[in-house]
Each structure stands twice: as C-alpha cells, then as structure tokens.
Write a structure and sequence with these properties.
This is Transposase. With 126 residues, this protein is an all-alpha fold. It has seven helices and no strands.
Length: 126
C-alpha cells in the first residue's frame, strides 16, 4: 500500500482544523478511513509534520552504535575471552544468549584455544 501524498495529508488536516466535520465526515470526503484522519491530526499535533513516518518494528538490538564499535575492538584485543567476560568487560546489560547471537551476526564464532592444565603440559614435554 502506498503512502498518501503530502498534498492530500495537508488537505485532510486543514479540513479538520477548519471544523469542517468529524473524523468520519472528513474521512468519507477524502476517501480514507476515520482512523487515518485521526492519525494525521495527532501526527501534525505531536510531531509538527505530515511526512510519512518510518516504522521501526520489532525489538531493537541490544548492541549497536558505539557499543558495537567497542565490542569489535574488544574482540580484536581479547580474541579468547568468553561471552560472559566480554559482557562484563563492556558493562553490557544483556543476557549471555543475546551477546552470543550478536557475535554470530557479526561473523564471529565461539572457538577458543584449548587450555591445557600445567600438570599435563609438564607430562607431555617429558
């Protein structure tokens, strides 16, 4: 569905502000629903614009912008840190799973170097 033209939006709001009728009357006159008239009147009042608005749906990412830049720097500086160590070092307010999924989206995989206990390394070298 295409957005209403700015001209039509302006005419709808102007008609309502000139007390030419209710949402229903103006909606019928301009072939739009009464809820569209109400939405445009509220948008003009609240945002002072009638331009189509971008709807950002869904949950916002927990790590974005400056935090993502910090995370990338931490990944390069500490490649063997665990997910929990990264979360604590950066002071992130998200779950372990959320950070794990963020790392996956960034292309990082959880593969740490194996840590061999000291007693086993001494036994292997003999």
């Amino acid at each position: 569905m295409q957005a209403l033209s700015l001209d039509l939006r302006t005419r709808i709001v102007t008609a309502y502000e000139a007390d030419e009728g209710s949402y229903e009357v103006i909606g019928e006159r301009f072939s739009v629903s009464p809820s569209v008239v109400g939405k445009l009147v509220r948008q003009k009042r609240d945002l002072n614009t009638l331009a189509p608005q971008v709807h950002l749906r869904g949950r916002k990412p927990a790590v974005s912008g400056k935090l993502e830049t910090k995370l990338r720097a931490h990944l390069k500086k500490h490649p063997d840190a665990t997910v929990l160590e990264r979360r604590d070092a950066l002071g992130l307010k998200c779950s372990e799973k959320t950070l794990w999924q963020t790392l996956r989206k960034m292309g990082w995989r959880y593969k740490k170097n194996p840590r061999v206990p000291q007693s086993r390394t001494a036994a292997m070298s003999s």
